[in-house]
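FAQ: What does the model actually see?

It sees only this:
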Amino acid sequence: MILVNGDSVDFAYIVNNGDSVSVYPVFESIDIGAVGRLRPNPLRKTRFVLDTHLGQLATYLRLLGFDTLYRNDFEDPELAKISSDQRRILLTKDRGLLKRSLVTHGYCIREIDPQLQILEVIRRFDLRENIHPFRRCLKCNGILESVDKEKIIDRLEYDTSRYFDEFRICQDCDQIYWKGSHYERMQRFLDGLLNPENG
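And it is asked to produce this:
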């Protein structure tokens, strides 16, 4: 939605000197039924598709629980089509990709360091309240579910089966997860990300 001097306008409005312009993204908590919207169907679920340069960012988004599609061989036309067909926000380092007519929801990542990229995305899309870590497979983006240890014991290394009792498994690719040293590292990363004053 765009408001100019308090009135709802569309893209045809020509901005005049002295106009006060406000641009709003998706509304969830207030009723805007009486005003005009630029997009008739705003996104209700925050889902992403990432270009080939953002693999580590994809891992971080999945770690935080966001539905994130990524492959290192996606071509630009395919990325634009996925973004449009599946109503996913396209994250890219390529501004030209965002100019494709199919792309209605996208963002150009400015940061180079992946840890700064995830902070950039969290801030840009106001995602702090939507973070639910350790719900998605870091490998394929599938949903993780708890699994009984006895069902997977034949797939575990001896030390893993000896020292750990809680396991989760990806419903899509069958990857097994447990709270080992990798979990502790990820938890420290999350704590620093969500509570910068702690690290």
